């Protein structure tokens, strides 16, 4: 509970600050987190080393710092959401590959946007929810519960539903896709521990197959996409070509094949912007 | 016709009068007229076409009528307004709350065109009108036609200015935006009965009574949820009440943008409007009805001018939280009653569609223009004599 109270105290200050000040405070906090996080920094550094094996120690350390910095700014964005207006956010977003999104929507079976833990994805989701179609996040339930409730209601007021990784959640994802809506999920981390081992940056990692399973069952097009921050603190949403899940009769093999194809795109996004891919969790064996 | 719509309230803050102005401007454009809006604003982005919006003055918060009015009190608006009015050459200037300082009164006094005023407010009494009657009466004389949004709003003004004629034209509802079947906020749609409150968190909206009613109801309908949409000065007290009483399943959504609000209505089963008074109309009731929701409301005059208890709603005495809780329990337990009331309200809401309401307002513009021409001719004849 203290974590939630501390979060709320900081959040209620940050949401009242001008954007530039909020970022300045975020960068200051990132410096602390970078120096004093016992596990997050080594784990993130390990993950980045796997993703970018060409980097030497100095470069890797700098990349890890930039990663903390960008993530803190994304956190500041999140904290400012309760007082942010979609109208104001629209000026800050550029979209690359919008034609892929339109193509997916034209199919008429909803859209499953497959992403990774990168950037301020609430911003682009809120804009798409206000201008294109209702959006749902299919994501993990955070601890403590009040913090999760805050996340959920803050997103909801921007038109984003938050569906949890559970049987009920899957049912609602199905409903949303049947209603031709957009569901956004990330596949770069196996949260509930049911992932299938497959190569991720060339090393075996457990990756969830659920997204591919839903797409195969409903015929929903899969849109690989990521959101990242530009140097002027505006945002870029980058969508890749659609992945269409086609059944060959072997359910498991199809799920693996489709997930691998998605993962290929996700690896591309991460390689392009490793300073924004923030997963300070254990993905591969050998991680601290 | 070129129409200038004048609002005294901060256009960047949500509120019934500004919503009315915004929708009317859009509807007038649809009908082929040119509309511009004049209002003070605390922010540059006001969710309206900036080319058609004139930001005049900076608003300050003033406590009025158990609420807070964000209006401009600047005495230096005249030059700016004169230049714009000269440039735009309006056929009609439509003042919302024309007796509200400073923007509407300044513009009204300077106007050389046809003036129409709409009165939105309702209260039991008004000290300003009582003591300022003699000073305000000349401003009313500038208006060629007057509109009140409801019978209580008309009675309120006529209490102080009995000779001023007013035509009642209700607030409108955008039936294309508020309709059943929109995508709900999915995590709020489960096996719980969702009770929705929409309004500023301030004393007169009666959220305190609703929280007590919800607490009373929770014991009898455990699978219920209260969704509170809106923000305001009482937010801290509401949060502390919820945490002190350990009220589960209360969602404080805060301010919700217009594009998302209809989805909250579509996520609810019952709409509750527990205001304690001083409501002249209740646009939220129309929004609820337009999305097919049954309403539980208090018997305040403004609400009663819209509701038909027993058909589209259940009504209770203001501040009667136990009665309010009982009404919520009845509706929560009776899906058929909810469906019937919601269906009736849905049909009724279409009578308040903006196309219907704007057509009536345009009629008033035409009447006012004729009256204005008549007045000018009268003055010319008089001068000639």
Characterise the protein shown here.
The complex is a heterodimer of chains A (288) and B (385). With 288 residues, chain A is of the alpha/beta class. Chain A folds into two domains: 1-83, no CATH class; 86-273, no CATH class. Chain A is built from eleven helices and nine strands. In chain A, β3, α8 and β4 form a beta-alpha-beta unit. The two termini of chain A are 27 Å apart. Chain B is α/β, with parallel strands linked by helices and 385 residues long. Chain B has two domains: 2-172 and 353-384, Rossmann fold (3-Layer(aba) Sandwich); 186-352, Rossmann fold. In chain B, 41% of the residues lie in helices and 18% in strands. Chain B has 13 helices and 15 strands. In chain B, strands 3-2-1-6-7-8-9 form a seven-stranded parallel β-sheet, sandwiched between helices. In chain B, strands 12-11-10-13-14-15 form a six-stranded parallel β-sheet, with helices on both faces. Chain B has a two-stranded antiparallel sheet with strand order 4-5. Chain B is globular. At the A-B interface, α5, α8, β4 and α9 of A face β12 of B.
Roughly how many Å is the radius of gyration of chain B?
22 Å
Per CATH, the architecture of the largest domain in chain B is 3-Layer(aba) Sandwich
Q: Output the CATH topology of the largest domain in chain B.
A: Rossmann fold
H/E element order of chain A:
HHHHHEHEHEHEHEEEHEEH
Report the sheet-strand fraction of chain B.
15-25%
> Portion of residues in helices of chain A?
40-55%
**Rg of Cα set of chain A:** 18 Å
Task: Give the domain tally of chain A.
Answer: 2
